[in-house]
Amino acid sequence: MKRILFRFIVTLLLPISFLKSEPRVTASVDQHLITMKSRFTFSIEFEDFSSFPGFSYDFKPDFMLISGPSRSTQFSIVNGRSSSKKVLSYTLAPLREGELTIPSFSFSYRGKTYTTDAVKVSVQGQIVNPAARQSRPEQAFIEVIPAKTNIVSGEAVSVIFKLYYQVQVVNYSFDPISAIEGALIENIQQSRNPAVSEENIQGQIYNAAVLRRIIITPTQSGKLIIPPQRVRLEVKSQRGGSFFDDPFFGGAFTQSKDIITPAYTFDVKPLPPGRPETFTGAVGEYSLSAGLDTNSVQANQAITYSITVSGNGNLKIFTFPKITFPKTFQVFEPKVKENIRVQDNGISGSKTWEFVLIPDESGQFELPPATFSYYSPRQNRYLSIEKSVPTLFVSPNERLIVENQGSLTPQQVQFLREDIRHIFSQESGIRPAKISLSKDRSLKIAIASLSMLLILFITSNLLWYRRVNDPAYQRRLSAFSKAKEALRQTDGTELLGISAALNRYLADIFNLLEGEVHMATIERKFPRAKQAKLVLGELQDLMRLLEALKYAPAQDLPKDIKEQVSLMIQKLEDIRE
């Protein structure tokens, strides 16, 4: 009897237990007051949705996506009413200070539109509150330290990422910074065994080591943001040993710890007005030298006019101002030689332009001086340098004079004609054939055909010669094979190698520096065809995915990420053809 009664009650309550609430969506963060060093979690909760809605969310320009989205699902029955909750969680880092807002977003689900509320976050300065640090010391953190904070557009500046720690670090991984929008990046090769020193931070002793150095050169004025970077540390659970002990010795347990570097913002000032006419973008401290390989030459013989700019600054960016040579000289495009070193304290070295000149006439020539202008951040003004070259003496070319004099004079021709008349006293019966070009159609066609073939032959050879000697063409020609080979040698879990293969391919086909590979530049150079626009959209999605996965654990990488990149490279190659 009791069993029958229990079944009856369950039967009555069963329909009630599956009553569902109306679906709704909410957005929230785990903390509203953060610092530039902080990471926080942004969550979107979908209550009583049978599945996760499909949508994409862009957190830029105020936040950087560190990882996510991660998914979780909960199911509960309260007072006879069932409910489910699905949660998407994103780990974010701020890109600037101030009162920031994660905007609301809308999406459609089963014919109905849902909208979240905007979420506000207050971001404090880049330096953590000293009192907060003393009350709750961090065992490991990273500071972004530029060599100079006040910079102008085009000024190269060194930036270091310094680790402060009170735990035993046995290893670390810090991926090279591939690109920053609005700037060129040079990653400086670092030793895997960095020098370690002790520093007093707010009354506490920390070990300190520089993990990465970069040289950043802004290409425009305004806000320039070095986004947060993820650094993974392998930390021993026990203290003791040196900075980079081998984790296989000593038997201590190691665990991974991810540290996010704070974003750093430069306020890049524009170059001041009053630029000299010979200013071509050089910013730094430079010297100038100029000279000829010889100051005495015969007409129609080549000489070399060499100009060298040496110093420290943005040597890779600028070119030399145009020089106006005398009209009686043949002037060829200069050959540029670079001897540039990227070091801890910046970019230094020299660039040389070699102009090949051929004087057509003899005489004494004063060639124009080499004039170079640059902006000096140290003196906060434009400077111009001028270097003269020796007077060029061009003597007549004796060999050409003799060759020109080898022809017969009119008197010699007259004597020759009289001799010939004595030899041929009778007119010959041979008569020239009367050929009329205007009437002989076949001859006209033959001459026109030969002329066209000759023009085509010369044009094709000139195009071939230009392409063979064009570095940009050579880069585009070998881009596909290089990318395929790089992917072939990369394991499917090596995200850095996979991403680098795509970046190098894009740099090669669009003739960019690797530091210039970002969507704004690619969109300007991308074909305008409809099919190309579809591929561009897919490329944007893939690059966003790679950026997001950069901070994800290796086990979270999609198994087909290597195939996705390979397929995208093939699609881009098909569009190029």
Q: Which descriptors would you attach to this protein?
A:
577 residues; alpha+beta; 4 domains; seven-stranded mixed beta sheet; five-stranded mixed beta sheet; 26% helix; globular
CA-CA gap between termini: 82 Å
Question: What's the β-strand tally?
Answer: 30
| Secondary-structure content class | alpha+beta
Mean pLDDT: 78
Tally of individual domains: 4
Could you estimate the helical fraction of the residues in percent?
25-40%
What kind of sheet is the major sheet? 7 strands, mixed
Rg over alpha carbons: 37 Å
Can you put this structure into words, describing what you see?
By secondary structure, the protein is of the alpha+beta class. It has 4 domains: 17-123, Immunoglobulin-like, CATH 2.60.40; 130-268; 279-395, Immunoglobulin-like (Sandwich), CATH 2.60.40; 471-576, Four Helix Bundle (Hemerythrin (Met), subunit A), CATH 1.20.120. Helices cover 26% and strands 37% of the residues. The chain has helices at 2-17, 130-135, 398-405, 410-423, 441-468, 471-488, 495-509, 519-525, 530-549, 561-576, and strands at 19-20, 24-29, 33-34, 40-47, 63-78, 81-94, 98-102, 106-109, 112-115, 119-123, 140-146, 157-165, 169-173, 183-188, 197-201, 204-218, 222-226, 230-236, 254-260, 264-268, 279-292, 296-298, 303-313, 329-331, 335-343, 346-359, 363-365, 370-376, 381-387, 392-395. The strands form 8 sheets. Strands 21, 23, 24, 25, 26, 28 and 29 form a 7-stranded mixed sheet that branches. Strands 1, 2, 4, 5 and 6 form a 5-stranded mixed sheet that branches. Strands 11, 12, 14, 15 and 16 form a 5-stranded antiparallel sheet that branches.
